[in-house]
Amino acid sequence: MNPIIQQLTKHRSIRKFQDQPLPEGLLETLIRAGQCAATSNQVQAYSVIRITDPHKRDRLAELAGGQPYVSAAPEFLVFCADMKRATEAAERAGAEVVRGTSEQLVVASVDTALMAQNVAIAAESEGLGICYIGGIRNNPDGVSELLALPEYVYPVFGMCIGYPAQDPEVKPRLPLESILKQDRYDDSQDQAQVAGFDEAMHRYYQERTGGRKDSTWSKELAPLFTTKLRLHMKAFLEKRGFGLK
Fold this sequence. Notes:
alpha+beta, single chain, 4-stranded antiparallel β-sheet, 12 helices, NADH Oxidase
């Protein structure tokens, strides 16, 4: 593997950081790297908000479900899907724009995710650690109000960045055969492959916690489909002007 692929395979979520700021100018370099990600029709449908106000950090940590590393990380960014800038630019150029389509929601969300992953990879290449904070969507109204987000802009996730103060193991991933399919969607081996992966994840949890965590990948999915539904997101996105058409 070349150095870039090696770097990609070492990703871990970091939740404990050294009390060490990023060198001057490095954050801006990371954001510029993020801007180099692929973007649909050059729309660049994202904005990134750097949170330096400690009171806002603490409030965001609370809104995200009580995640202390949001307050403690040297840098915390909120990545926002942003269709406001592009639609207004097109309008000024003479277009009769149509706002609030589902396609615009998809484009803005994908653009934001691609841009953020570039930032994450760039940060890790500099010896930094990152942690995505999807809990930003626990209370998107509160986050939007706190950050003065306008219509056609919504917070997708946050990201903690800093020098790691922990060295967790890389989490196993599903076997390649579960993900890479040829010519058609074939799930005939999914049950067996998932069973094997559950065994691998059980060993991982046991080793990481010294035997205290008795779980599997399948068991850990439960909240996503039972309690962590975030059903408020539909109404929130419609209120922000997304996904109406």
